[in-house]
Write a structure and sequence with these properties.
globular, alpha+beta, 193 residues, Aminopeptidase, eight-stranded mixed beta sheet
């Protein structure tokens, strides 16, 4: 609620100049999870590193496998450097926070990376204890807002067939979806029509 009794909007906070990259770099939105808790979705910042590492430690081996397609105990230093380096033009990253014990805690994240003009690959993670609360869908919606503002034509993703939750997020996101299967992976395309 705002001070005058109106509901808060989940619209992004506008940035000076209104450029897509500055909009993405300063993005902040407030939402409500399925269980009624408030969640903040905002642009990833360099100071989020330790919170992201903590979140990664709270994900199961299965969740990491579904995200990276291989068993993974932790991220390498080069992977950490890559994930912590969004430029908010060709690599946009959003983090999802809830408040626990009076402090913000990372419960998920999503990003898109431009792979060719007009096309960006999209990926997510959600901490296991926060699965099934709608975090993936919220991250998808906010990344789509930023992707559309950046002039993208489509998001693409590779998803393991057993990752029904991620496929469900894509199916329900409101963007026309096409899929094809090859080499044990489902290739998803989501068009900004």
């Amino acid at each position: 609620m705002t001070g005058d009794g109106r509901e808060e909007s989940s619209r992004p906070t506008p940035s000076p100049g209104g450029k897509p990259e500055s909009q993405a770099a300063n993005y902040v939105a407030e939402e409500t999870l399925r269980d009624g808790r408030r969640i903040t979705i905002r642009a990833q910042r360099p100071e989020d590193l330790e919170a992201i590492r903590s979140a990664a430690r709270l994900t199961s081996e299965r969740t990491r496998y579904l995200r990276f397609f291989a068993p993974k105990k932790s991220l390498s230093e080069s992977e950490v450097a890559f994930f912590m380096g969004p430029d908010f033009v060709d690599h946009v990253a959003l983090m999802a926070f809830v408040e626990e014990s009076g402090r913000p805690v990372v419960v998920g994240g999503g990003r898109f990376i431009v792979v060719k003009p007009g096309t960006a690959e999209i990926a997510f993670f959600v901490v296991d204890a926060f699965h099934r609360l709608g975090i993936g869908s919220l991250l998808m919606r906010h990344l789509a807002i930023l992707g559309r503002a950046a002039g993208l034509a489509e998001f693409v993703a590779e998803v393991l067939p057993e990752n029904a939750s991620m496929l469900g997020v894509f199916r329900k996101c409101g963007l026309p979806m096409t899929t094809r299967r090859s080499d044990g992976v489902i290739h998803v395309s989501l068009a900004f029509s």
